[in-house]
Amino acid sequence: MSTELVVGAWIATGLSLFIYSFLYKDNPFFKLGEHIFVGVSVGYLLTITHYEVMSKKLYVPLVQQGQWRLAVPALLGLLMLARFIPAIAWLSRLSFAFILGISSGVAIPRQLSSFILQQIQGTVEPLVTTGDGGVSWFTFAGLNTLLVLVGVVSVLVYFFFSIEHTRVVHRVARVGIYFLMVSFGAAFGYTVMARMSLLIGRFDELVLYASADYGYATLVLLAGVIAGLVWWERGRSQESRQ
Amino acid sequence: MNDFARRMLNLDRRVIFLLIAVVTLLPLLYPVGLPIRVSPEVRKVYDHLESLPPGAVFLLSLDFEPAGKPELYPMSIALLRHAFRKNLTVLGLTLWPAGTGLAEAVFSQVAQESGKEKGKDYVFLGYAPGDANAIISMGQDFHAAFPADYYGTKTADLAVLKDVRTLRDVHYVVSLSVGFPGLDTWYVYGKEKYGFELGGGCTAVSAPLFYPLLNTGQINGLLGGLRGAAEYEILLHSEGKATAGMDAQSATHFLIIVLIVACNCFYFLTGQTGRQRR
Q1: ipTM of this model?
Q2: Across the interface, which of B25, B188, B225 has its CB nearest the CB of A194?
Q3: Distance from CA of B277 to the nearest CA of A (A)
Q4: Which residue ranges of chain B lie beneath pLDDT 50?
């Protein structure tokens, strides 16, 4: 086992336990872990952006390979920073106008096609189909189509606020609420599954790092964090008595 | 009984944390091996990859960062193993800057264990900045979008990219996505315009968002969360971290169901209505 792997395991284990210590209550270990996480994340992102974007995609092609056309996006990027100087802050609007114009032009037709037109097409599938085997009147696929259609229409009615929800509209909107409740339940179930997966992933590594190969990192650091929390609690209780 | 129910409803939440921790840990230490049924959406991704001939171009976009690792890392390992086993030409990249190191580690590890050569059998292109613009740029000219790979080798000199000029030359794209940019970005700006087949993998929390795309055939298959990864490992007969985590997943889900039912029972036993509690 290489030294850097063992050191990495100890750091990862320590920080995981620091963050999990919040489940007991807010404490200095959690604060330390949180601040290190924020600092490292920002530092890592800046470094990656510097090497992968500023250096590889801009500096090398522009300065070393003479691709002068890249000076235009570089200049637009620099103009964004003009916002920090009030006298020339208006220059940043040029960049924002460029970004908004391009983004809208590219995104609107594609988004409409992908998420509106094709989804409507998927909502109004035929209930009765004909094929080599003759006419197929009612299948499970047809039942699904019917459910999707009823769900979409009733939820749309529920969110239609221009008319008062009375009589038929009220009843249809009520059906829409049931569909929404089912979808919220499914979304919550998936959320629980996702959060448990994160916990399992972390525990999986903590179990691995508890082995002799990693110097019993999890067990030693867990004992350390518990001892630290006890010491911190005693200090706090002494302070409150004084 | 009433007092007991009231006490249970005011139970210290740290007891529940402890219960969850124990229930998660025990199956990891002592696996039971509960059966795993493969869902049609996962099988479709597997079948499509299986149907590709050797040498077909497969693009795996690892659009996640370390926060999505527990769910998406096992998927990327399984998909790459499958692609290398099928002798496909594999292209790798990420649309997330913080995921670059993780993605590179996945490619290096699986390529090494599969005996694949960098630049000849596969290429890792690194981080593609610009979200949707990166995909559009690849669709117009792949080599202009990536003049060099992650390690600095010119893409024009790489044998693996000899026949890949644009995204139209790619046969299958799979995006393992933790958010935006990800699977939907690949669909909207990639598949719609350049016509390749698209499959995906995502964290469980975002899976419900992609089922409408699956139902309309806009994506051909979906691996949802750790469960999706485990199903793919089962299909591949290569059980890994996802399969190992399924016992713990089932145990924690069971505990949460029990807690929800118990809390509802205790609530009704106290004889309070929602209005009284407020």
Answers
A1: 0.88
A2: B225
A3: 23
A4: none
